[in-house]
Design a protein that fits this description.
alpha/beta; 2 domains; 13 helices; 7 strands; 38% helix; UDP-glucosyltransferase activity
Length: 304
């Protein structure tokens, strides 16, 4: 008989009941990582799966055996794209990879340890979009790479888009609305929240921002920049709750899923080369990813 010692989260400073990073402040992320450092399962021959939720392209260019954060400015040997690259400012923004992230281990080392020592790498993506990057990752880590697809809920025609969003989106021309979503885990500082709102305002386009209230604020309204609501009036919605994202993205008025004002302007202008390219790509991927059966097909193949 073997005794299984449990590493209690409370010993790592994690509040009772916390299970994922969405349950704790970002400042406690390293403590949660430390609590998950235990290697007990290896003693019992259990297999491990590294579930990657970021893009395969990012993993392919940033996390390759034998490299370090200092090498990120140059793509790794055999990297499959000459266009999907890290630019100077993007490389600088990744300096956090070298920071300690629990038990004296850097964030980069922690990610690499998981990728190198797992039995299978699973990535939340699809072959149609990132197949060549997934193949590269498989060759670099010598691990089977399995894809789950985008893991979006299947379009449910029995539940149409809620009236408030249907009526608001119908007020605008096709392809004119910018949709910005920061997900369910991100809680911004108030200054960051206001910068995003002001940046979106500068696009001059109608937009919907889905984001949690920032730190120190209980509601979205109390955190908005001064005079913001009066300036943008009814062409803008900043929403702090859940929305029907697949149905919103499928609405013909939505033309961009972005959050950088200059890029948004280029993409939303109808007569620019970049704008036309983005619209063609958007139409292509909308058709592919929202087509019947593609999402459930990936999940079914993964389970099998």
């Amino acid at each position: 008989m073997h005794r299984l010692d449990t590493y209690h989260l409370s010993e790592a400073g994690i509040p009772d009941g916390a299970k994922t990073t969405s349950d704790i402040p970002i400042t406690l992320g390293s403590f949660l990582a430390s609590a998950m450092n235990q290697h007990t399962v290896r003693e019992y021959g259990a297999k491990s799966v590294n579930f990657v939720t970021i893009s395969a392209a990012y993993v392919a260019i940033s996390f390759v055996p034998g490299r370090s954060p200092d090498d990120l400015a140059v793509p790794p040997t055999g990297y499959p794209s000459s266009k999907v690259l890290l630019h100077g400012h993007e490389t600088k923004s990744l300096s956090f990879l070298s920071y300690p992230f629990g038990d004296g281990v850097t964030f980069y080392e922690r990610i690499m340890t998981g990728l190198v020592n797992c039995d299978v790498i699973t990535i939340r993506t699809c072959q149609e979009i990132e197949g060549k990057f997934c193949d590269f990752i498989e060759s670099q880590f010598q691990r089977k790479v399995l894809l789950t697809g985008p893991m979006l809920p299947e379009p449910d025609n029995s539940k149409p888009l809620e009236d408030q969003w249907h009526q608001w989106l119908n007020r605008f021309e096709p392809g004119s609305v910018v949709y910005c979503s920061l997900g369910s885990e991100i809680i911004l500082e108030k200054e960051e929240f206001q910068e995003i709102c002001l940046g979106m305002e500068l696009t001059g386009s109608p937009f919907l921002v889905e984001v949690k209230p920032p730190k120190g604020a209980s509601t979205i309204q109390e955190a908005l920049p001064k005079g913001f609501e009066e300036r943008v009036k009814e062409r803008v919605v900043v929403w702090g709750g859940w929305v029907q994202q697949p149905l919103i993205l499928a609405h013909p008025s939505v033309g961009c899923f972005e959050n950088i004002s200059v890029a948004v302007k280029c993409e939303m202008y109808k007569d620019t080369e970049l704008g036309n390219l983005v619209r063609r790509n958007l139409a292509k991927w909308k058709k592919s990813l929202l087509s019947s059966g593609i999402i459930s097909g990936y999940v079914n193949r993964y389970v099998m």
